[in-house]
Amino acid sequence: MTRTFNPSPHSRVSFQDAPTLSVDVGGTAFVYRELGPRTGVPVILLNHLGAQLDNFDPRIVDGLAATRWVIAFDNRGIGASAGKTPSTISGMARDAVAFIRALGFEEVDLFGFSLGGFVAQEIVLSEPRLVRKLILSGTGPAGGQGIDKVTPLTIMDMIKGALTFRDAKYYLFFTTTPNGRRAARAFLERLKERRTNRDKPISLSAFGAQLKAIRAYGLQAPQDLGAINIPVLVANGDQDRMVPSANTYDLARRIPGAQLVIYPDAGHGGIFQNYADFVPKALSFVEA
Q1: What is the mean pLDDT of the segment spanning 85-109?
Q2: How far apart, in whole angstroms, are the C-alpha atoms of residue 158 and residue 54?
Q3: Which residue in 3, 23, 117, 266 has its CB near the most CB atoms, within 10 A?
Q4: Looking at the whole model, is its pTM more than 0.90?
Q5: Would you list the domain boundaries of the chain?
Q6: Alpha-carbon radius of gyration of the chain
Q7: Which DSSP string do the residues of 56-92 spell out, in sequence order?
Q8: CA distance 198 to 261
Q9: In CATH terms, is domain 21-287 a member of 1.10.240.10?
Q10: For 39-63, what is each residue's pLDDT tens digit?
Q11: Which residues fall within 8 angstroms of residue 38, CB to CB, at 6 or more apart?
Q12: Which strands make up the sheet holding 70-73, listed edge to edge?
């Protein structure tokens, strides 16, 4: 394993200032950032469609890192990570597992948001001994309701964003109520807090591969989520347009013993809108 930076085990750096590190994964450089106490089981973050390191909500990352070792990374071909992005969820999961093992971990907690939640489920089902606890947000199961429609919805709101000079996440992640609009503006401002050494934007080819993988995941046969026998926390807003909220209830019903958190008047980014409530719940879950 090769790292470009080795911080103190007691480093208290915030996510906006965390250095971008690199690790060799089978001959390919993957970039990541880590913070929090370097002890115990780390929490690995798996992010959404079109996202790179600078798209993780700093309030959630910093909140978790107050007591947990947190690692955010760019999977293959995303942001500054090298290689070609797979066009399947299973391929993304294999790369994520290879990254985790390249860092030397034998056990991790996974926190998957949206597309990252698809990947996280695949990891748990294919490598059950690797994952201790699982957090799923804004996501759904293979073959879930409306997942195959993410591409047209995303493109429509990207066009809407371009016409209104707004980030598409303003429309995709939040409700149209005054509360949702305020939350959207606050979230997008938080994503700008890192001023230097920002990540590379996702390439069009990587974005296209992600869309292809999501559509195929939405069309594939349902998986046996009853085989997941680790603690799972499932969260979302009650009005998710991207991955309809019905999928959140479906996950909680099909995964044995899953805990469910639903935020009212909130969309796909419900945990961002309600980070002050969500972070303590997530910490309580992983520390229990």
Answers
A1: 98
A2: 19
A3: 117
A4: yes
A5: 21-287
A6: 17
A7: S-HHHHHHHHTTS-EEEE--TTSTT--SPPPSSHHHH
A8: 32
A9: no
A10: 999 999 999 999 999 999 999 999 9
A11: 7, 9, 11, 69
A12: 21-25, 28-35, 70-73, 43-46, 108-113, 131-137, 232-237, 259-263
